[in-house]
Amino acid sequence: MTRVATVCLLALASLAACLAASAPARAQQAERCPKLVASSPFLQPLGPRALPAAYLEPRQVSLAYIGHSTFLIETAGGVTVTTDYNDYVRPDVVPRVATMNRAHSTHYSLNPDPGIEYVLKGWREDRDPVRYDLEVGDLWIGNLPTNIRDMQGGTIRNGNSIFIFRAADICIAHLGHLHHTLTVDDLAVLGRIDVVLAPVDGSYTLDVDGMIEVLKALEAPVVIPMHYFNESTLNRFLDRLAGSQYAVERRESPQVVFSRETLPAKPTVIVLPASRYQ
Asked: Of these four, 40, 73, 136, 139, which has the most CB atoms within 10 Å of its CB?
């Protein structure tokens, strides 16, 4: 064998070793939410309207429960999002991003504040699936279309979206007005989810058993209940979880700050009081 051939073989062997060593890193990247996005930097230059949130560390994200299905998400870079933005339950601030779903008027607005930069509807009128892949400052937003029921019990295809928000390497999924369990393909698209905002009314959306099935399939470290109308409805959901792998924490503040380091080791349901009303 010539010296040149030997050098080439050694170079190929070295390249193979490097590729093998990088395989775990690529596998870890694939577990980030959601799998429909190959890769995306978590920290982007701040947009012209974003100011850093002084109370957050660089690798933290804040979530506050406003009421019903509405949350206010704020990133360390100052990007704000209101979920299921509507004309009844709103935060005090005008968010930079508003997401909506179409099930009822408490999940969308016909007159969103003109100061909102991005209004993202979780449906299309022609019932084709809507798709989002949006970077706003240090926040990434995507969605998974799902179906909903109409008033007669029929199916409106792609009438709802599960919105996914990624900031500070935390993946938050807002299930919206979910009416059915998730398929294997749905779970594959969503990938690793860290925090699930789950409707737990058990009637207008998915029934309690179905919702618990979804939550167990997602395997997120944190579940935050929403879309319940009184304490008895919430307690019915929590009672069904009794004896399961979930711990339950009730917080006094409607706001919680997450980072990768502070995610619970055991799956935990965190009950936040609404800052407005249900």
From this structure: 139
